Structure formats: C-alpha cells, structure tokens
Amino acid sequence: MAYSDSIRQQYATFTTTADLIDNLLTQNFSASFDVAVVKGTSAASNVIEGYLFSNSTDPFQLNLNKSRGASLNVNTIVANGDVLGRINFRGANGTSFNTACRIEGIVDGTPGATNDMPGAIVFSCCADGTASATERMRIGANGAVGIGRTSPGVYGTLEVGGSNDPTFAIVSTNANATALTITAIGNDSIRFNSNFNFPMTFFTNNTERMRLTETGRLVLGNTSPSGTLDVRNVESNSIPTGRFISTIASDVSQTALVVGKKDNNSTSSQIFVQFAINGATTLCGQINANGANTAAFGSTSDERLKENITDLPPQLNNILSLRPVEFDYKDGSGHQIGFIAQEVYPIYPDLVGTREDGMYTLTDLNKNDSRLIKAFQELAQQVTDLAARVESLENAS
C-alpha cells in the first residue's frame, strides 16, 4: 500500500484489493478526500470482495454509517431526508469521470432515539445529454415502490408515474404466456381506480377497444358512448354485434337477458327495447308494455309523422290465398305451425326477407296468425256455401 504524503495519508492508493480490505477499513479520516481508491488495468485486479467463513446464517456486511456529529465519533441523530450512504457509478468522458447513476439510502421519516430509523432506497440515473442524476425509482419506508414517483404509497404499494405514453407496460416475449395475472387473496377485492376526471381505456393491437368514462359509461368499439352500455361492431359485417348465450345445463327456467324498468307503469308508453336502422338514427320498432304482465311489439304511428294516407285496398282474396301449414324442421329442432315463405312471397312480398346464407325469413305471420287465418278461411268457405244455398232456394221459389 502506498500513501500520498501531500494529503497526510488521508488519500490512499491501493495496488491490490487485499491492501484495501486488510489495512484501510479500520482507519479514521477527517478530511473531505477520497479515502480509498482501488486502481487496476483489468477486471480481475479491480474487484472488491468480502468473505465470511461461518457455519451460520450470518452475512458478510458492508456498513455505510452517517451521523450529524461535527467531529469524529460524535453520535448526533440524523434527520428526515438525510442521505446515509451513496454508491456512485461513474464513467470516463475523456478528461474526467461523470456520474451516470447512483444508489442512495436515505432517512424516510422522523428517526427516534432507539430502534427507529425509517429508511428508503433511491435509484437515480442521468438522462442522455445531462450530467445530473434524476431519481427514477424509490422503495419507501412504508414498503411502497415508486417508479417515476417520489412519494409512493398514496395510491398503492406499486406506483408508476411519468410522461411517457403508456406510463406502464408489461411485455411478454413468450407468445403462449400470460402477460399479467392479478389475484385477490381471501376477501380482498381487485380494484382498478382512477382518482382523476379521465376515462379508463383498454387497447389491443395498439387500437382502443373499450372505454370506461369518468361518469361510469362503458363503450366497446367507440369513444363516445350514448348510453350506460354502448356496444359498436367496428370489426366485420359477418359477426353479430352482441350475443347472450347460457351454457349452463338445465337452464330452461332462467333467462338469457333481463330488461327491466324502475317505474311501475304497464301501459304501452313503457318502452323496453327500441330498434333502429341508418346508423341508429331511424327507429323501426320497439318492444313495450301492453297491460299487466304483457309486452308487445310496437311502432311509431303518430299521424303527424305520416303523409299520403289512403284506405287499404281489398284483402279478402289475398288472405284466402294464404296456406297455413304445420311441419317438422329438417334439423330435428321440432314441429311447428306457420306458412311457407316461398308461397307467401307472391301474395305479400314485404313479409319475406333473406338471410346471409340465402334462406328466406317470414315476418309478422306467427303461429296464432296461421290458426286465425285458417279459421277465417273456413268461415269464408261457410259463407260461400251459405250464399250458394240461399241463391239455390231463391231460384227454386
């Protein structure tokens, strides 16, 4: 070991790690100098190591002690915010060495006289183009971790802040792995919370898919909901916008969807569901109450919305031309009563539609309509028969 006389042995240059460990660690230095410097020209010669040989769980320790005493060995209590120890990581810039990052142990609270020393660990780094280290992460005395947050624990155990977008990202390099799992233990709940007047947004493939607004509205496929729940299909015209499917066995008595209203009003003014076209700007029907324990399809019928009003032409021949039938579905789904779309189309083409797969549909002719029409046709036949008998009797007289 060689000492520099110019600073009265308060600056020591060591040629080996052994010199540092064996000869310096118990020395007292009172001046503001680097008290120990280990220099070398290779990684092997510039390593500081410590060894403990003990048949126990005791560790090798490196203590960095701080007192506010003004002279050696004066034990004066430290204060909140005091830096107790610092490890600097510095790099050569061509003429000197600049700090790139550092680790500090600080007092994180008000210390007491005995066994009361709240502490935090602070990690700081220099941004590109600067020589001043900025705090990046902190582990506080409360156990909270802050990344980009200097006082963690206000909102949670882990707080991530910053101006980057996004502020926090979890990236999995395994295509088959789960990127994030959140588990509540016991009676704890999982809560996603925003303490400010801003929405919560959810993205996939770097595109917003869902948004929960600051007022509590949930929207999928859009950013401006027009209801408490707003679902938009912005993906494809080959998929439905929504589906409600129960996959539980023996669920015959349970509903797949419940639509309820608060007001105890069973008149036809009580609207449950509305249907619209043209980007949901033109109404084309609704489901409303229709008296006690009854709901029905309704439509807008105000005279003020109509023009070119004329009487309907005779319909007797059309009704008599319909053929009510009963049949079985080929897929085995069961027996039914109704009409054949291809037979109805020449009579009432506006009642026949076409599915995406080309199959025809029939609207406004249900099971009881077929029974009533069949009964009406039977009555019409009886009237025809009676008319013929009357005519025959009149001719005979």
Unreliable stretches: 1-12
Q: Summarize the amount of helix as a percent range.
A: 10-25%
Order of helices and strands: EEHEEEEEEEEEEEEEEHEEHEEH
Supply the number of helical segments.
4
Strand content: 15-25%
Count of extended strands: 20
Q: Roughly how many Å apart are the termini?
A: 151 Å
Lateral arrangement of strands in the main beta sheet: 4-5-6-7-8-9
CA gyration radius, whole angstroms: 42 Å
Number of domains: 5
Mean pLDDT: 87
**Class derived from helix and strand content:** alpha+beta
Give the biggest beta sheet: 6 strands, mixed
Shape, principal axes of CA atoms: rod-shaped
Description:
12% of the residues lie in helices and 25% in strands. It is α+β, with helices and mostly antiparallel strands. It folds into five domains: 1-62, no CATH class; 65-183, no CATH class; 195-236, no CATH class; 257-302, no CATH class; 316-396, no CATH class. The strands form six sheets. The protein has a six-stranded mixed sheet, with no helix packed on it. A four-stranded mixed sheet has the order 10-11-12-13, with no helix packed on it. The radius of gyration is 42 Å and the shape is rod-shaped.
